[in-house]
Amino acid sequence: MNIYIAVISHGHSDLINQLACLPLLSKEYQVVIKSNKSKDHFDSWIESPNLYWIDDQYGCGFGRNNNIVFEYCRSELRMTEEDYFIVLNPDVIIESKEIERLIDHMSVGGVKLSAINLLKDRNKMIYDQSIRKFPTLLQFVKSFLGLGNSSILDKSSLISSSKVDWAAGSFLAFKSGHYAKLGGFDENYFMYCEDIDICYRSYLSGERVTYYPEISALHLAKHANRELFSMHFYWHITSALRFLLTKVGLTKKKSSLLE
Predict the structure, then answer these.
(1) Rounded to whole angstroms, how far apart are CA atoms 90 and 218?
(2) Tell me, what's the pLDDT at 228?
(3) What is the 3-state secondary structure (H, E, C) of 109-178?
(4) d(CA 234, CA 232)
(5) What phi and psi values does residue 39 have, to the nearest 5 degrees?
(6) 35: exposed, middle or buried (Cβ count in 10 Å: 0-12, 13-18, 19+)
(7) How does pLDDT run across 177-186, given as a tens digit for each residue?
(8) Which residues pair with 104 in a beta bridge?
(9) What is the pLDDT of residue 236?
(10) pLDDT-based confidence at 251, cuts 50/70/90?
């Protein structure tokens, strides 16, 4: 059983070099960086064993990029269905021992999709709002208008491993065979809601996300979707509508199959 980590860089090489998290992870696991822009540059560690760099096919969305890495791991690195595939943001700092603990928990519990406790400060006092209930149209609208979001789960109330609806794509861990069974991320999303969508499809398949609050990482998150009329805001709106329509369609399809 091996662990493969996918990191998508949108010109984040300066940040990746500065944080120096990936060279440490590559000492234990297979790390694949996929550049989405041509301006990336990495220090000499990029040629280290267990660290691979896909420097082509620019301008893809989040889902497409991660699917490219997944296929690379299968075809070039011989990843099997029994291995684990982790989607990791370039601005997440996690120690190898935390990943080891996570995979141990997943293996013992037979878990195929999991998330961890992302935090926004090094003192581990500020939670990243990374686990939530599946959103409704009203919740999306209120969130966009800055009126709060009732789909957010209170992490302080979850003190042991719990089943949740969905977790942010900043960190998601899959059993490789489960990712393949789901068909990976839906590439019809360009950015935003791909994580909700794949977690929803996993939920319909009978596998909910398992959240492990005792396993943590630092997420230096910077959200760019709130500026009205920006491309990020447009992508978020269209992705939210796509998910809501897809959710209705998938639910109806599952219901008809059960009749």
Answers:
(1) 11
(2) 47
(3) HCCCEEEEEEECCCCCCCECCCEECCCCHHHHHHHHCCCCCCCECCHHHCCCCEEECEECCCEEEEEHHH
(4) 5
(5) -95, 10
(6) buried
(7) 999 999 999 9
(8) none
(9) 65
(10) low
Burial 119-151 (b: 16+ CB within 10 A, else e): bbeeeeeebbebbbebbeeebbebbbeeeeeeb
Distance of CA 30 to the CA centre of its chain: 17
Cα maximum dimension of the chain: 58
Tell me the whole-structure pTM to 2 decimals: 0.88
* Residue 84 or 228, more confident: 84
Asked whether the CA dihedral 84, 48, 32, 23 is positive or negative, the reply is positive
State how far Cα 80 lies from the chain centre.
20
Quote the percentage of the chain above a pLDDT of 70.
85
Q: Residue 27 pLDDT > 60, yes or no?
A: yes
User: In this structure, which CATH number among 3.90.400.10, 3.30.1490.20, 3.40.50.920, 3.90.550.60 belongs to the domain 3-258?
Assistant: 3.90.550.60
What's the token pair of residue 209?
Answer: 């996300």
- For residue 3, the 8-state DSSP code is E
**Tokens at 98, concatenated:** 């935390």
Residue spans per domain, the chain: 3-258
Distance CA 110, CA 82 (A): 11
Residue-wise pLDDT tens digits, 29-42:
999 999 999 889 98
Buried b / exposed e over 84-111, threshold 16 CB at 10 Å, is: bbbbbbbbbbbeeebbeebbebbeeeeb
Yes or no: say if 163 and 153 are a contact pair by the CB < 8 Å rule: no
Q: Which residues have CB under 8 Å from 255's CB, separation 6+?
A: none
